[in-house]
Amino acid sequence: MATQTAPSAEGVRPNPGRPSVITFVVCAAAFMAMLDVFVVNVAFTDIGAEFGARLGDLSWVLNAYAIVYAALLVPAGRLADRYGRKPAFLAGLAVFTVASAACSLAPQLWWLVFFRGVQAVGAALLTPASLGLLLTVLPAERRAGAVRIWATTSSFAAAVGPVVGGGLVELSWRWVFLINIPVGVAAFAVARQVLPDLRDTSAVRLPDPLGTAALVVAFGALSLGLVKGQDWTWTGAATVTTFAVAAAGIAVFVVRILNHPAPVVDPALFRTPAFVWANVTVLLFCTAFGAVFPSVVLWLQGPAGYSALGTGLAIAPGPLMVPLFAAVGRRPATRVPAGALVAAGNLLFAGGALLLAASASADTRYATQILPGWLVIGAGIGLALPVMLSRATAELPAGQAATGSAVVNAGRQLGYVLGVAILVAVLGTAGPTADPAHTFRPAWWFIAATAAGSAATAFGITGRTRS
Prior knowledge:
Elements (H helix, E strand, L loop, with lengths): L2 E3 L13 H33 L3 H4 L1 H24 L1 H20 L4 H29 L2 H32 L3 H4 L1 H15 L2 E3 L9 H24 L4 H23 L13 H29 L6 H8 L1 H12 L1 H4 L4 H22 L6 H28 L7 H30 L5 H22 L10
Parallel strand pairs: 1-2
């Protein structure tokens, strides 16, 4: 298929003629990437048992993926804008699929962590390219709806992932990675035929490699400090050093984007207020989200004594609320300011976490202690997440579509890293106790407070248009 050039500013978007097929293909890839995240959550206990890993070390199976993914999303988005979103999408899909096979063969924990990082390289290539394709090839009036579909597809992966993962873990945790292979191969074959090749020829230089490296170092050091702080002591030299390295990395990153001729992130993006506030809101929201899912999985497989399959089935009702309430939220979204709708969803999220904390006890009863709060959390996520993602990129120029979407998704991944790391830190701070509620309750309080903070910042999302 002939290469098409996307405008570097507001202009006429190319029409590939098959927007529905393109939407389906890119959503299938998003589904695969997100399915893997939620399947791995359910496999946590079995992976730890096979490798004899502690929770802090085991958390790097999630964090290695999220750190590499977050750090590479923005430069990958810039590369996709310049060198073609179709090649970036196909390359990312291939790397992700091959790395999934390697994860299934990992001989010990740190090899699995390494291959998870390789998986993240593939995901970082395909994610901004996929969302950039949606934002570029579709007419303006269909962009927000397409992003909603994209976000809801990812949420549906959260619903089926635990059930699928629970069933696969009954065979072996290694099967949770093998499931990506047929999906990846099928998506690659179709994408190669139907995707247009779009690029922004105004981007003439590669993104700043030092800025990218500084971001990786900052994310990694921050996560390491949060995960190991309890073991090292919070005021110990090792903990203070890792936090200092994280702060230095962030400072270098900021200086580089302000002064480098080809920064990882174009500072002009942050002159769109809705984009800035959406990113702050997404960061807080995903910090809460990144903590709540593994917290409930750990509760079910720990104090409640559920099997992997039982955990998957118990987890499923909450994520099933997400597409349902995403659909429910579409009608008020045409009349209610986007910020108010996102704030309402986040307040529901916070309320569900408070329900979990209030009902926790040593005598675990799923129907009365877990399910009510879990359903409320799912409803809140369904209201908030699609609107956050669609508003974050709705007012960006077409030529910055992939880069802008990469910034948003990098914020999501950073939130997941912080959520998992802080959860591990909070659970570790509680220390050994006969009452598991004493261990988990502070984690759910933290999640509720973070979701409430996301509700407060959400009012800045509303821009010139409704969601």
